[in-house]
Amino acid sequence: MTWLRRSACLLAALSASFPARAEGPRDAHLTGARSTALAGAGTASAEDCSASYYNPANLARGTRSWVCVDYSVSGATLQPGGRSEADHTVHTFGAGLVSRGTVLGVPFGVGALLSLPNGKLSRIEGIATTDESWVFDTNRPQVSFGALGIGIEPVPRLSFGAALHVLAGVRGEFGVGGRLARPNEYDSELRHDVDADLASARSFGLGVAVMVTDHTRLALAYRHRARIDQKIAGDLAGDVGEPPSTIPARYEVESVVTPADYPSALSFGTAHELGRLQVLAEIGWENFSEWRPPDGRSTTRLALGGFPVDLGDRQQPLADLELRDRFVPRLGFEYRLLAGPPRELRLRAGYAFERSPLPEQFGTPRWLDSDRHLFTAGAGFETSFGDHALRVDLFGRLAVLAERTAVSESSLGPALKASGKRYGAGVTSSFGF
């Protein structure tokens, strides 16, 4: 029964792994280089392809339609390292579209956005509860993000919008069956099959924007909670040995994990122009009290010779932690160095402070997190030719995680102080028409 034991051990290892939470789209640079260079203060100002994420009401604003292509790279240096430290960089590829027009004289716009971390729909690596895990900063669990939005300006200076947000991963099943012969394994008759389909979690975003004056805009945006579960199921069935001493055996396992859970968020922002300088300020509220920790559930069943063996169900043991809701202030600056047309050059910088929603812990689990200071910078160049335009936006991003005691001393080990840095850079190329 070596084949059966090896296969059972492999499935048991799969079912015993549980992933940490994936970072949100804003942290993963999935939403455009311009808004990222402004520390994410895009609620009142994002009119490019990222509007479907930040505020769909902005889709009705602007004078051009755009096709966008994104690329970004991110990594981290975290202490202590733990199992979930970024031991490799993540390359994110994305594309977007915003199309604007009028219907019966009413301005409107539609937008779409898609981002693929490392060019894949999903990637998961398990982390045990006894390991140190950066639950909000790991870039190992990755899921793709998509958005489809529409905005309308029913009256001058006032626009509304709504968007559908989608997190996508995969579900899979596989099976192995047949007869395993001993001692000559070449006489074995085995067959296998693999089946996979798309798993998705749908959420929504709402927004409103108003031009108070020719130089000042106010905006409010809401993004509802999004959570996605992924499942893998396996079945090993067949006969072991040669007649008349064959033994029928079956091993089944089903494991469900949660690679992403993004809390609801409400953002209020303003954009004010002072000559060539635009100042953007934003305050966001994130409802982490509804966030569920990374968890997993697995069920295993074993039958030998027609007699079931009860292996039980396994549920991730979790501490009863009450995460704190948080307010996140963001501040961005954009200066028009060349005021064009036909050419424009803009310099950007931003700052945000994100308080950790994770309280100090005792014992299991050993999750790590810290308050962070976010510093961003970037530039954008645009040239127009006739009715068309070409824009290139760049950004750099550094998040400094202040040192704090994340886990107190317990039977699992000494106290852990969390600190580190996250960094990233990216580019968005856009064609306007």
Q: What is the share of helical residues?
A: under 10%
Tell me what portion of residues adopts beta-strand conformation.
Answer: over 45%
CATH architectural designation: Beta Barrel
Provide the succession of SSEs: HHHEEEEEEEEEEEEEEEEEEEEEE
CATH topology: Porin
Low-pLDDT regions: 1-24
Mean residue pLDDT = 79
**DSSP strand tally:** 22
Q: End-to-end distance, in Å?
A: 66 Å
CATH superfamily: Outer membrane protein transport protein (OMPP1/FadL/TodX)
Class, according to the CATH hierarchy? Mainly Beta
Largest sheet: 14 strands, antiparallel, barrel
Main β-sheet, spatial strand arrangement: 1-2-3-6-7-8-9-12-13-16-17-20-21-22
* Whole-angstrom Rg: 25 Å
- Give the helix tally: 3
Structural class: mainly beta
Q: Provide the domain count.
A: 1
Shape: globular
Task: Characterize the structure shown.
- This protein is mainly beta.
- It has one domain: Outer membrane protein transport protein (OMPP1/FadL/TodX) (Porin, Beta Barrel), CATH 2.40.160.60.
- The protein contains three helices and 22 strands.
- The strands form two sheets. A 14-stranded antiparallel barrel has the order 1-2-3-6-7-8-9-12-13-16-17-20-21-22.
- The protein is globular, with a radius of gyration of 25 Å.
Keywords:
single chain; 433 residues; mainly beta; Porin; 14-stranded antiparallel barrel; two-stranded parallel ribbon; 3 helices; 22 strands; globular
Could you outline the blueprint of secondary structure elements for this entry?
Blueprint: H1 2-15, H2 33-37, H3 51-54, E1 66-79, E2 90-103, E3 106-117, E4 122-123, E5 133-134, E6 142-155, E7 158-180, E8 189-211, E9 216-223, E10 226-240, E11 247-262, E12 265-274, E13 277-286, E14 296-304, E15 307-315, E16 326-339, E17 343-354, E18 361-362, E19 367-368, E20 372-385, E21 388-408, E22 416-432
Parallel strand pairs: 5-19, 7-10, 18-21
Antiparallel strand pairs: 1-2, 1-22, 2-3, 3-6, 4-6, 6-7, 7-8, 8-9, 9-12, 10-11, 11-14, 12-13, 13-16, 14-15, 16-17, 17-20, 20-21, 21-22
